[in-house]
Amino acid sequence: MKKYEVMFIVKSATDGDAIKNTAESMKKIVADNKGKVLEFNELGEKKLAYPIKKEINGYYYVMTIEASKEAVSELDRKAFINENILRHLIIKLDEE
Question: What pTM was estimated for this model as a whole?
Answer without folding.
Answer: 0.88
